[in-house]
Design a protein that fits this description.
The protein has 496 residues and is α/β, with parallel strands linked by helices. The protein has two domains: 2-174, Cobalamin-binding domain (Rossmann fold); 198-462, Aldolase class I (TIM Barrel, Alpha-Beta Barrel). It contains 17 helices and 15 strands. The chain has helices at 26-42, 61-64, 69-72, 88-101, 118-125, 139-148, 151-158, 223-227, 235-250, 279-291, 313-321, 336-341, 348-360, 378-391, 408-411, 447-459, 464-482, and strands spanning 2-9, 53-60, 78-82, 106-110, 129-131, 164-168, 171-174, 206-209, 211-213, 230-232, 263-271, 299-305, 324-332, 364-371, 394-399. It has a seven-stranded mixed sheet, with helices on both faces. A six-stranded parallel sheet has the order 8-11-12-13-14-15. Helix 14 packs parallel to helix 16 (447-459).
């Protein structure tokens, strides 16, 4: 018997990299994990309480358009929704409407926001279950349980599963956390399940995940809570994922440049090359990068790193040799007091030297900055823009935005969408959580004043968004000439 599972990534309302049509990885790994669950049972590796197979689809609203609840949920047995913070209103709308029109459908929520706020997700999205943190290990057993039991029996079975939340007699119950899984519990993401991915509608870039987590503990970031620690995938898994991307590009599922035939690959998401002080991780990553030789031919590679990379000539040489061209660097601020306040272990003077060193290696630096930090003034913010342009070719900018897994979530008093203090019990205006305005009370700036400050700051930069906008326009023009279908604008990274 076949059961149909639909994974949905809601449409984004904005943020950085809006012009890059590339996939988020979460849903593709979950789809693969569900199929792997069935195969493992056949091989005797896993136990099952059901004998059906799962047919999956992955719906990226930014790629193929808004989900039509009445049409696109016909025949769906389980609906899974994951969302970043500014997509949450749409995520709750999808799940809520699914229950209204298809009362027997099972709904599952997850991701960095809902996993941290299961009470809110169940209240506003009417989800049956919320999965906390990673979900590859739980999606199979959970799907089996959701479709095998009802009523009180279902609640009893859910209690046996770790790391989930569900409502029982009006109270949200959270089970004990599961153990952390290997970062490559699933080796290859399931791109076959992506709706609308064809040679006529390819991704603008590929993505490869080499690590989960981070070696740092910056107060504004939720990665450490979502992924716990710093976990590399196995070397063999990296090779398989690189081979998968080569096949996709050869099949026309990733765009290649008409100038040199290369295709872009984002190495996601966190510290690909870790700081040199994390000696064990750094040495292992260096050997792996050297092992990529010959496997990254034709790739224009992009990753995220800390500025200290500029002090590691051996790592820089290995990265450049294997096609690493662009590096997103979390400089955040050039003010030492600000960096100390957010536990960013960096010295502004050293960061300046590091970024200039990276430029000398030929890297295209993208300086990621945060404004609105505790010791910022408008004068200091605008001065930082001039410095950032000296040490990087492109920049990104975000106003400090509180996220559920950070201390800022409870510490900072949230604002309503009109700029007034949020009344107790009211859901936050998540559509404003794009990093383009303050969403909490700050005596220095109102919400509206922060929007104007953001505009003044970014007007002095060379935002990487503008680069992607130009590339997207070029893609449009080429598509019009060839009759190809232009890919939708897709958010690759947001403040969440």
């Amino acid at each position: 018997m076949i059961k149909n599972v639909l994974f949905v990534q809601p449409k984004s309302v904005g943020g950085n990299f809006e012009y890059v049509a590339i996939p988020r990885q979460g849903m593709t790994f979950l789809s693969a994990a569900l199929k792997q669950h069935v195969e493992w049972a056949k091989q005797g590796i896993a136990n099952r309480i059901a004998d059906w197979v799962y047919e999956t689809r992955i719906w990226f609203e930014d790629k193929v358009g808004k989900l039509d609840i009445l049409k696109d949920l016909q025949g769906v047995d389980i609906l899974c929704v994951s969302a970043l913070i500014n997509e949450i209103p749409r995520a709750y709308e999808i799940a809520r409407q699914a229950k209204e029109h298809f009362p027997h459908i099972r709904t599952v929520g997850g991701g960095p926001h809902m996993g941290m706020l299961p009470d809110e997700a169940i209240q506003h999205g009417k989800f049956d279950v919320i999965v906390k943190r990673e979900g590859e290990d739980i999606i199979g057993p959970l799907a089996d349980v959701l479709l095998s039991f009802k009523g009180g029996d279902l609640k009893q079975e859910l209690k046996k599963l770790g790391g989930i939340a569900y409502e029982d007699d009006g109270v949200v119950f959270q089970t004990a956390n599961r153990r952390t899984i290997p970062s490559d519990f699933v080796e290859l993401p399931d791109y076959d399940a992506v709706v609308g991915l064809t040679p006529r509608t390819p991704w603008a870039a590929g993505v490869i995940e080499t690590v989960r987590g981070c070696t740092e503990s910056c107060t504004y970031c939720e990665v450490i809570q979502q992924f716990l620690g710093y976990r590399m995938v196995r070397r063999e898994t990296e090779w398989k994922r690189l081979e998968q991307l080569q096949r996709m590009a050869a099949d026309g599922l990733i765009m290649t440049s008409p100038l040199d035939g290369r295709f872009a690959v984002f190495v996601t998401d966190d510290l690909h090359p870790p700081p040199a002080r994390a000696t064990k991780f750094r040495n292992e990553r260096l050997e792996r990068i050297k092992g990529w030789h010959g496997r990254t031919e034709g790739m224009f590679m992009i990753c995220q790193a800390r500025g200290e990379l500029g002090q590691d000539s051996e790592m820089c040489e290995a990265l450049r040799t294997n096609g690493m061209e662009m590096i997103y660097l979390g400089v955040e601020s050039n003010n030492a007091e600000n960096l100390n306040a957010v536990r960013k272990r960096q010295d502004p003077g050293q960061v300046d030297r590091d970024l200039r060193a990276l430029q000398s290696w030929g890297f295209i630096n993208v300086a990621m900055t945060i404004i609105g930090l505790p010791y910022d003034t408008e004068e200091k913010i605008l001065a930082m823009a001039e410095w950032a342009k000296e040490v990087s070719k492109y920049q990104t900018a975000n106003l400090l935005t509180p996220l559920p897994a950070t201390i800022n979530w409870e510490l900072l008093r949230p604002l309503d969408e009109d700029g007034s203090l949020l009344p107790p019990g009211k859901m936050r205006p998540y559509h404003l959580y794009t990093g383009k305005q303050l969403v909490y009370y700050d005596q220095r700036w109102t919400l509206q004043e922060s929007q104007a400050l953001y505009q003044r700051y970014t007007a002095r930069l060379r935002p990487v968004d503008r680069l992607y906008a130009r590339l997207f326009q070029q893609i449009q023009r080429r598509a019009e000439k060839t009759g190809a279908v232009v890919p939708q604008k897709v958010l690759a990274v947001s403040p969440s």
